[in-house]
Amino acid sequence: MQPRVLEIRKGILDKNDQLAAGLRTRFHQAGVYTVNLVSSPGAGKTEMLEQTLSMLRERGMHTAALVGDVATDNDARRLARSGVPVRQIVTGGNCHLEADMIERHLEDWNLNTLDFLFIENVGNLVCPASYDLGEDLRVVLLSVTEGEDKPLKYPAMFNSADLALFTKMDIADAAGFDRQAALDALQAVHPGLPCLELSARTQAGMAAWINFLLEARKAAISARDEES
Amino acid sequence: MHELSIAVELVQTVEEAARQANAASVSRVSIALGALSGVDADALQFAYDVATAGTLLEGSILDITAVPIQVTCSACGSITTLPAYVPLICGQCGEAAVRVTQGKELLISSVEVLDAAESA
What we know:
The complex is a heterodimer of chains A (about 230) and B (about 120). Chain A has nine helices and nine strands. Chain A is α/β, with parallel strands linked by helices and about 230 residues long.
């Protein structure tokens, strides 16, 4: 009456990982640089993304955005003001975006015409950490009102990110933001994680962020060309 | 909520493997859960009971092995296991020049199944 043992060494999220890998290949073949924006709710993703889309458009880049929310299409409406194609993903309860949602919402978009695709994730510092969306760059936003120890409280998320952005820097003084403490917290959970500071409201730091994106895309495209 | 969707994914994957192996039911599922995976073991255990109801896994045991964070240091070359998430520094030389080489796992390591004659 011995139970049989099936040796399965499989990742629980293999299905998502495989879909994400497929998306990554599609994005690379189409020459799109994909960015996944994560943060807690209210950190300023949408405001920053709206500015980013407009500024990239001014630099001659073709961009598009997918934005995820549990409810409403408010963010898509706001982002559409930038004049670029935007689609809302309404999760209806799911606390994070997954690769299959991205795939479905890309239908009938010609990726070959895009230079950048931005994915604004559901505001949540826990769950999105585990879900690969096929992105080239995962950016975690931390606003000056959230507390400098946020990175220590959400190690998986900050460890999985490629870049951190301190947002709402225009009210840093009013919020009593301890910049060094926040930088130290970042380094404690992710040594070497690059960090930029900006204010979408005043545009301070936005030019440096745009340049970072343009350089990152250029580097990624040449790396892909070398591989092929 | 999050651990429930992970549990559902786990159950679907195991059930499919069990069916392919012509098993009648599943008695135990062993998984490796990394400290940096972002998934909480207790919440997953709770969600597992909910997710297995009505499936081949109903009544089975979920065996969770916690995988600690292991880092490889580019300063001194050591591979060390860390007792906590933070700070992420080499356990040998204390430098922050480390890369996480273990600790992000969300892996099914093995599954025990029962064949028809043995099932309750």
